[in-house]
């Protein structure tokens, strides 16, 4: 699956433009450096690098049945998905991540449990769906997995 870099590119372009105009107005300053750092961090958070590689919904469900790890349905640019991913930290790699924008079956699965809406993040753990769960709860569950 092709991973979307669109929003990361937009954030980086805006950052380069903002830092460039500040640089042109007064050379290197703390403001220019701060703009570069902030927009580079935003570009990283919006990039596919912040999330583990997505798998298809069918493969994720199959893997989850085999290893007991949760399936997390997400989409790029979702602030709640970003919050969940950041709070899970490195433990987020213990889950199977499914991008609903690249997998129609995943979007249908989310709509089925979220009242017809594509509300993400939706986590399926032990066959039980949880729409926009508390990150601390999910992190605790991930820590108990082998």
Give the helices and strands, then pairings:
Layout: H1 6-26, H2 30-46, H3 57-67, E1 71-74, H4 79-88, E2 96-99, H5 104-113, E3 122-125, E4 128-131, H6 135-143
Parallel strand pairs: 1-2
Antiparallel strand pairs: 1-3, 3-4
Describe, in plain words, how this protein is organized in 3D.
The chain is α+β, with helices and mostly antiparallel strands. The protein has two domains: 6-49; 52-143, Glutaredoxin. Helix content is 53%, strand content 11%. It has helices at 6-26, 30-46, 57-67, 79-88, 104-113, 135-143, and strands at residues 71-74, 96-99, 122-125, 128-131. It has a four-stranded mixed beta sheet with strand order 2-1-3-4. The longest helix is centred in the first third of the chain and has 21 residues, at 6-26. The two termini are 28 Å apart. The mean pLDDT is 88. One of its GO terms (biological process) is cell redox homeostasis. Residues 71-128 form the Glutaredoxin domain.
Provide a compact summary of the structure:
The chain has 146 residues and is an alpha+beta fold. It folds into two domains: 44 residues; 92 residues, 3-Layer(aba) Sandwich (Glutaredoxin), CATH 3.40.30. The chain starts with 5 loop residues before the first helix and ends with a helix.
